[in-house]
């Protein structure tokens, strides 16, 4: 297999890459307490040395045992016990050596499979060094890396993110509006916040509000990693707006809005039945021409979103339209975004 022949980045000159990989695999991710303090190379040395010691002791005990019998001495019970004990030790340590050495090969296979999955996911990049060798290395943790990780998590556990389909629509809407200040209601892990931040102009800022303090901590971690990775990025074409995570009830935060400036884009992704309350709290602080985007305007159109949709579609202060898409990770379930312009 092509990827099976790749080398990891940076093997030292003169050191066999396969042997180096074996050593690295043992030192990187020990599976238990013993492997943490006693990596496999040291365990093999110990088991091998113990087996050799038992073998020599068995030979010596057997020679003494036979010698005692040859001199016509009574049955040397102590010597027989020593021979048996040494044989048991020899078999035990030799077996441990064999099993541990066999497990090393299995670990290499698992490690190679992991590398291939990382390459398929986009978390590891393959390249050719100056000597023409194919090598691979983990990509730097940045906003794209965080988004891929969140998408895998969201798809696996059915997390209520906007998902890739609506995410593309959301980014396009943000790029078209080019707002200097975006407010998001409902942060969760920060997935949609990252999508918005990527689409903002360089001077753009995002304030995302989350009511659950546990998700605030999660979002701060992911968004902080994304921002730090972006600062280290060497790609000048990528932009990432400033991101701030606020903890609290969005209705209260928006009602007490002070000194943050006019809101150019409002993304509502909180509790559907509270969407109208979010909008009314933010309305005095909207810039003229501000864009309001409400998620789940399809699946909750007849339920929690109904009062909100009736308000923005009938109020002369707003011009509203529905953009159809799909629900999160379910391509077979239709959903959409209600895109509204504040006319002032």
TrEMBL record:
Keyword Transferase: yes
Name the record gives this protein: catechol O-methyltransferase
GO biological process: catecholamine metabolic process; methylation
Family that this chain belongs to: Belongs to the class I-like SAM-binding methyltransferase superfamily. Cation-dependent O-methyltransferase family.
Spans through the membrane: 44-65, 80-98
Pfam families cross-referenced by the UniProt entry: Methyltransf_3 (PF01596)
One Gene Ontology term of the molecular function aspect: catechol O-methyltransferase activity
Keyword Transmembrane helix attached: yes
The entry's keywords: Catecholamine metabolism, Membrane, Methyltransferase, S-adenosyl-L-methionine, Transferase, Transmembrane, Transmembrane helix
Organism (species): [Myrmecia] bisecta
E.C. code: 2.1.1.6
């Amino acid at each position: 297999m092509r990827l099976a022949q790749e080398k990891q980045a940076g093997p030292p000159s003169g050191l066999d890459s396969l042997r180096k990989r074996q050593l690295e695999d043992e030192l990187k991710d020990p599976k238990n307490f013993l492997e943490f303090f006693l990596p496999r190379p040291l365990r093999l040395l110990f088991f091998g040395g113990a087996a050799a010691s038992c073998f020599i002791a068995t030979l010596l005990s057997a020679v003494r045992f036979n010698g005692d019998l040859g001199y016509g001495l009574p049955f040397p019970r102590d010597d027989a016990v020593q021979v048996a004990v040494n044989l048991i030790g020899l078999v035990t340590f030799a077996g441990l050596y064999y099993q541990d050495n066999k497990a090393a090969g299995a670990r290499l296979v698992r490690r190679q499979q992991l590398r291939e999955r990382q390459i398929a996911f986009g978390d590891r990049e393959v390249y050719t060094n100056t000597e023409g060798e194919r090598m691979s290395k983990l990509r730097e943790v940045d906003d794209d890396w965080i988004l891929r990780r969140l998408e895998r998590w969201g798809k696996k556990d059915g997390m209520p993110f906007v998902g890739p389909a609506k995410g593309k629509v959301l980014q396009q809407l943000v790029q078209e509006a080019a707002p200097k200040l975006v407010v998001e209601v409902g942060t969760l892990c920060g997935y949609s916040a990252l999508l918005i931040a990527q689409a903002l102009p360089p001077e753009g800022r995002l304030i995302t509000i989350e009511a659950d303090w546990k998700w605030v901590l999660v979002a701060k971690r992911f968004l902080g990693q994304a921002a730090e990775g972006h600062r280290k990025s060497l790609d000048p074409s990528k932009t990432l707006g400033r991101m701030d995570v606020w903890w609290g009830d969005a209705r209260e935060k928006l009602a007490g809005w002070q000194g943050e400036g006019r809101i150019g884009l409002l993304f509502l992704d909180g509790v559907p039945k509270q969407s109208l309350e979010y909008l009314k709290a933010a309305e005095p602080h909207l810039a003229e021409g501000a864009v309001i985007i409400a998620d789940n305007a399809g699946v909750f159109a007849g339920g929690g979103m109904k009062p909100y949709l009736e308000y923005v579609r009938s109020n002369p202060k707003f011009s509203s339209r529905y953009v159809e898409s799909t629900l999160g990770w379910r391509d077979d379930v239709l959903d959409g975004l209600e895109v509204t312009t504040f006319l002032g």
